[in-house]
Write a structure and sequence with these properties.
heterodimer, A: alpha+beta, five-stranded mixed β-sheet, two-stranded antiparallel sheet, B: 13 helices, 8 strands
């Protein structure tokens, strides 16, 4: 047992972190800059060139052959700087395509960033959308995506076109695109052969991956906003004192740190379990991480707003952008209340195996 | 990141599991019967030692097994999974102080009997005027030829009534700055001039005590480390006391949660669990998160050698888990504790309130994190 990053994982973290530092917004204004969409395209190719998109795709299929732990590392590093790139959407779509044994050319073109695909969640953002219930379904984290993957009745993947030009939803999160799938789009796009039907085990495993990466995204955002709050507390002076010297402020930040590290510990295991444990076990670990990170993330983001004081509720500072991201991560595939309900069903109905 | 056991770890786990299956003793005496509990737990301590399961991370010369900190995590997981009684709480952190600072002769003298459970120990740190501000302690030890003369008072001393030895912090230099004038001594509890007054606690237990020292003579060779090194020794001890794997909480918590979940499954809390199911799941999340956090901390300890200030996060997460679990257990007991039909959940809940006080209060832990981990300025 060794619960620490290997030298290779440490290097990957540094690569992703330095990329994120270059492309992440410095203030909320960077997000509505007219040149933002141009920049986004450039950022996307930087991510692709660094080989981060197809990290989890098997080497035989032209990917990085990495495990979910490496994907978690990238997700966390990008979220820490709120990089506006649809990494999670593509990573989750690629995982489905690989699991279904989709056409190699399709996988390769998505893994290299040439084509963009994401996943669609149902209208309540609770799970992968199905063809039978496309009404209100949302292409999730699908900036620039031509299609979103949904499930057919028998578990076959179907690519539904995404009308990106119609504009995304004007939702809470300023750093992630959500596009409602229009009516009359039941017909698949010409993406290519999307493989065989996914069985229940494969879908359970996918949910475990998705929840783990969402938890990692929350952990990254928590880390980013707590770091900003601590830095700010070391500069801001009131009563002739840097506010970071006040015990009330110190204890707020310390509590946030504790929640952050607890979330990170749960998330590392969840990501590892995706490839190392049976799907049901991995899903339990992922729900645990998502539940704790969701409740902790909101608290930490609120703490950061409190420490920043008045400036935090203006468009000049980033704390609200972090909180928005965390709220949107928290909702995806169900907030903590839903995860806890599922954990209870798993633990109690089965007679509570330790 | 790899949670799989190495071949050696897997072998250790399997052997421990086999041993536990054959060795777990019968029913534990109830809370409140302190004498019977002390005897029962001491017997379990000796049994664990005879099996070779104590002092896992201690050096082989000290009677330990010289294993990496990861094994403490495995030990806790398996004890919890097997519903075994709690492992002895204080040998780990007291032992680490003597291993870290004691001379070879002292290690030889004190460690084997501590580990075996043949001699019992207590920890004389806090005083009426020195709780969170431990550095202000006033108990003094004055060198007089070949011995020290100890005068003063300690408080909150766990198991003082049953202890053979005390690891004592006392001021040996009245002139030095407050943290620098403190030394650590080991003292026999049956020395003339030592008196123990048990403290009647919130749950009627009395395993804590006040200890008074009146001209107690302690041979000078019972000084641990150098004169003035007491503060470092205390900090080392407390760093280990803060780790939930070291004090066995995780094993206990998993066991308690398992009981509550089983009762819930049997319908003991009604057919419609409603909110209770979610609260049980919340406790599962806290305890599992804590377990995973501790595994990560133990891996960090493998790399760093000793627990650092980050360990204060472990203590706060442990506090969160234990206090939430105990409050839930109290609520699930309904009116039974109120009517006096079943006081155990009430007492368990009361005890959980002490977790955020002992071993450095939650506020002290937060200040350590803020100043020493986050680098926030001292006021």
């Amino acid at each position: 047992m060794d619960v620490s990053l290997t030298p290779e994982q440490e290097m990957l973290r540094e690569t992703a972190a330095s990329l994120a530092q270059r492309i992440g917004p410095a203030t909320p204004h960077d997000l509505d800059d007219p040149a933002a969409s141009e920049a986004a395209a450039k950022h996307w190719s930087m991510l692709a060139d660094a080989g981060l998109l197809g990290l989890g795709v098997p080497m035989a299929a032209g990917g990085g052959g990495a495990s979910a732990v490496e994907m978690m590392i990238v997700a966390e590093a990008l979220a820490r700087r709120l990089a506006v790139v649809p990494y999670l959407g593509v990573a989750l779509a690629l995982d489905l395509l690989v699991a279904a044994g989709a056409d190699g050319d399709v996988v390769a073109s998505v893994a290299t960033g040439e084509r963009r695909v994401t996943v669609a969640l149902d209208a309540g953002l609770r799970d992968l959308a199905t063809v039978g219930a496309l009404d209100g379904a949302v292409a999730w984290d699908g900036a620039g995506a031509e299609a979103a993957l949904v499930l057919d009745a028998d578990g076959t993947l179907v690519a539904v076109p995404v009308d990106g030009d119609g504009g995304g939803l004007d939702g809470a999160d300023l750093t992630r695109s959500l596009v409602r799938l229009g009516g009359g789009h039941e017909r698949a796009t010409e993406l290519g052969a999307l493989g065989r039907p996914l069985d229940a085990g494969a879908l359970v495993r996918w949910r475990a991956l998705a929840l783990s990466l969402l938890a990692a995204d929350i952990v990254g955002a928590m880390d980013g906003t707590l770091t900003a709050a601590v830095d700010y507390s070391k500069e801001r002076v009131q009563f002739d004192t840097r506010i970071g010297a006040f015990q009330a402020v110190q204890h707020l930040c310390a509590d946030a740190y504790v929640l952050l590290e607890g979330s990170r510990s749960a998330t590392w295991y969840a990501a590892w379990a995706v490839d190392a444990e049976a799907p049901e076990q991995a899903l339990l670990a992922a729900r645990t991480a998502k539940a704790f990170a969701s409740q902790s993330g909101v608290t930490v983001a609120e703490t950061s707003i409190q420490v920043h004081g008045g400036v935090a509720i203006t468009w000049e500072y980033m704390p609200h952008v972090f909180l928005r991201r965390i709220l949107s991560d928290r909702a995806a595939l169900g907030p903590e209340s839903r995860q806890l309900q599922a954990i209870a069903e798993h633990r109690i109905a089965r007679g509570a195996a330790a | 990141v790899n949670y799989h056991d190495s071949p050696e770890e897997a072998e250790f786990r399997a052997a421990l599991r086999r041993w536990l299956a054959e060795s777990i003793p019968g029913s534990e005496p109830p809370e409140g019967d302190e004498e019977a509990r002390a005897t029962f737990l001491n017997a379990w301590h000796r049994q664990l030692h005879a099996g070779g399961w104590l002092g896992l991370t201690w050096p082989v010369e000290a009677g330990g097994r010289g294993l990496s900190p990861i094994y403490e995590g495995i030990f806790n997981e398996e004890l919890g999974a097997a519903n075994a009684p709690s492992p002895p709480g204080n040998i780990g952190f007291l032992g680490k102080a003597i291993i870290g600072f004691g001379s070879p002769e002292q290690q030889q003298r004190y460690l084997p009997t501590l580990l075996k459970g043949e001699e019992r120990w207590c920890q004389g740190f806090s005083e009426p005027g020195a709780g969170s501000d431990l550095g202000s302690l006033r108990t003094r030890a004055d060198l007089d030829g070949d011995h020290y003369v100890v005068n003063g008072q300690k408080v909150w001393t766990s198991f003082a009534k049953w202890a053979d030895w005390c690891l004592l912090l006392a001021r040996t230099d009245q002139e030095a700055p407050k943290h620098k004038g403190i030394s650590a001594l080991v003292l026999r509890m049956d020395s003339p001039g030592v008196s123990v007054r048990p403290i009647h606690q919130i749950d009627h237990s009395n395993d804590l005590a006040e200890v008074f020292f009146d001209d107690v003579e302690v041979p000078a060779d019972q000084l641990i480390g150098a004169p003035g090194q007491g503060w470092s020794i205390a900090m080392r001890t407390l760093a280990y006391e803060r780790g939930p794997a070291d004090i066995g909480f995780i094993a206990r918590a998993r066991r308690r949660l398992h009981q509550l979940e089983t009762e819930a499954g049997r319908g003991a809390f009604g057919d419609d669990l409603g909110d209770t199911a979610v609260r049980l799941a919340q406790c599962y999340v806290y305890i599992e998160m804590l377990r995973l956090h501790v595994l990560r901390s133990l891996s960090q300890r493998v790399a760093q050698g000793e627990p650092g200030p980050e360990g204060s996060a472990d203590k706060l997460l442990w506090t969160l888990a234990e206090q939430e679990l105990s409050r839930l257990a109290l609520d699930l007991a309904g009116v039974a504790p109120i009517l006096g039909d079943d006081l155990a959940p009430l007492h368990e809940y009361f005890q959980s309130r002490a977790v955020s006080i002992y071993g450095g209060s939650a506020q002290i832990q937060r200040s350590i994190i803020a100043q020493r981990v986050l680098g926030m300025p001292r006021s």
